[in-house]
Input
Amino acid sequence: EAQVTQNPRYLITVTGKKLTVTCSQNMNHEYMSWYRQDPGLGLRQIYYSMNVEVTDKGDVPEGYKVSRKEKRNFPLILESPSPNQTSLYFCASRENSAEGYEQYFGPGTRLTVT
Amino acid sequence: SQQGEEDPQALSIQEGENATMNCSYKTSINNLQWYRQNSGRGLVHLILIRSNEREKHSGRLRVTLDTSKKSSSLLITASRAADTASYFCATERRGSNYKLTFGKGTLLTVNP
Output
């Protein structure tokens, strides 16, 4: 089954404690992306990757890092989480083509930083 | 910045009725997509319409796109209680490296 998986699904942590949210897709997609969803603000892109070793900032990259060492995985790293990073996070992937293709979203990771 | 703006913000209808949601956007797009999200869960892709298309159907869904007005509509016919969810339009702009810019969504409630 084609899918994007994220782990963990729920996480409560404290300010400053480094954490990683993993994302993996099994569709051999070159393009992957991270979004955060906040009430009243909708979904906003954090970082994206066009291919292995190619990453770039989205609209709200501050406080986040990503890496793309292999095609299927695109982890999101919060080196020093702060309460304003409390949010619902989604990983997505799609084919890397000029044609319009849907994006596949993971189930989401609900992060609370206290 | 948010490109898509859905209207209305919330919609409540009875089962069997049709539901229409609208989306407006600001810049040129490659395509426009509609997604559904059940409360706090992942987004499910519903339908994609390219900038050179005007109308598309998928089951009970009908999407229109008017690039001259920079607007789209999603029609769900013969709604069911299971259609209760938030619906988002998302635009993929030219030169955006496939970034989807989402609206804030329409919360649809279908009452049995």
User: Anything to note?
Assistant: The first strand of chain B starts at residue 5 and ends at 7. The mean pLDDT of chain B is 91.
